[in-house]
What we know:
The chain folds into three domains: 3-78; 82-187, Recoverin, domain 1, CATH 1.10.238; 192-309, no CATH class. With 310 residues, it is mostly helical. Helix content is 61%, strand content 8%. It has a two-stranded antiparallel ribbon with strand order 1-2. Strands 3-6 form a two-stranded antiparallel sheet. The protein has a two-stranded antiparallel ribbon with strand order 4-5. Helix 11 (205-220) crosses helix 12. The protein has helices at 6-19, 28-37, 46-50, 55-75, 86-93, 95-109, 121-129, 143-150, 161-181, 196-203, 205-220, 228-238, 240-243, 252-263, 277-297, 304-309; strands at residues 3-5, 52-54, 80-83, 117-118, 158-159, 184-187, 190-193, 300-303.
Amino acid sequence: DGSFTGAQIIDIALSRASSSLFRLSLPDSLKASALTRLRTPDADSDAFRSALYPADKASDVLRDYITAVADELKENPLVVSILDGSTLRLLLKDEDDFAMLAESLFTELDDEDEGKISKSEIRNALVQMGAEMGVPPFSEFPKLNDLLRKHGADGEEKLGQAQFAQLLQSVMQDLEEELSKENVVVIRNIQVVNGSKLRKLLANEQELKTVVEKVFRERVDGRDGLRSTEIIRSYLEKNAKELGLPLVQAEVAAVLLYDAVFDDIVTKEKDGTELDKEELGKLVKDILQKFAEQLEANPVQQDLSYIEEE
């Protein structure tokens, strides 16, 4: 009858978005965030998904949702890896690198410290290597199961470290060959902090004022002996996730970024004069602007699994 449900509109939008992204399925978190950007009433509820829209209205909603997906990707870019066997090839080419990798994996998998592990642990070794080392998830590349069966790597026979390394090498060689013929594209579990959230905060006077108030309260609440910059840094580090800053606990690059920004800050406190609230507000804004500029020029990548644990 020319009408579409909200769910159908979303399916069409996601299909179009996916076709522009190597046919990748967008993460659920991104889809949910894009949905909340819609101005349609109850956009984030079941009511929207079940509602019927005439063709002309459905077209508008479709356009708005695709725009919302694009905006979300601009603020939270996806990190994508094309696994073509090249990373595995490099690991296999360097004997020392491969030996270190095999030893590290064997030690990690030898929970009982027996000096032997089951053949089937090769599967876990590949999972641990992951996309970072050129190994696709089993769910994205079912041929991995065939390779393991081919090499008898699904049994419980015990292997010493040398035998494990030999079997791992054989599996990796075959996997490298398969990936060179059939590339696999995967979305990495990585967040890119590029300053977009900070820029939105800086553009919102009320939100910025709230941040300044909280920093001011921290100073009032007895942080004796600490300079304003130290109090601000402490606050930013504790609230990094909410503010759109990288977590210092997650990446060395984040620590270096904080150091660079605060080393560049000069305040009137050098002569022992405490900043008043207005001066403190200006200082907070200046610091956040510097972070936004630095992150736009040099985004920081963070492991999402670590962030989700925080």
